[in-house]
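Chapter review: from sequence to fold.
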Amino acid sequence: MSLPSVYCAAGTPGRDPEANLERIRQWASEASAAGAGLLLTPELFVAAEAGGEAVVRERLRLAARTAGVGIVASTPERTGERVFVGADWWDAAGQLVAHVRKRRLSGWQRSRGFSGWTGRPEIIRAVAYTLCGNNGPVGVAFAEDAADPAQAYFLRDHGVRPVLVLAATSTAVRTLAPARPWGAKHTGAPFPQAGPLPEPLLRPLPRFADAWWSPSIPRGTADLGS
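The token string follows.
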């Protein structure tokens, strides 16, 4: 029986940032021993108080390289006066595979002054792992973002099936269902159809995800998912 390639960690961070970092290192060792290629850690499991944003990210990178397993981990990120919830994907060699920022914030994050990211999300076009038996594009999302249907449209349009989801105390790999085929069928509508009306007809105005479209997305980037 083959072991899963993604180790989904779950837990509540404590008050001690050093202990939280140590917990991630333990998870990485457990993931490596289980034969997993990638460890998912909960959202903001390590805060920047452990020595600053750059120091925390470097220690996470070293944890991935030391354990020989990829790590997706979330940390706060400051750009000017704005603070974002971010996540980095480090591969087993300590190389950055992808970076995402959270769009839809939870209540406590808004109260703490975090900002929702408004830039264009990206997709991981190629990774060195087999996720859920799928070698195609992979999505990365925080739980609140994963609940947004517009992001599911965007991901499915780009062929994404597995999505790595980071929640406050848990993680998961979700598989997006492919879009249902459309074909001719008489239903009483003014034209034949097989199922629900095509999305452009139901929503003639540009939807939220349309502005993100790019016909060419470079290898090694990431996107938010559903």
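Two observations follow directly from the output. The chain has six helices and eight strands. Residues 204-226 have pLDDT under 50 and may be disordered.
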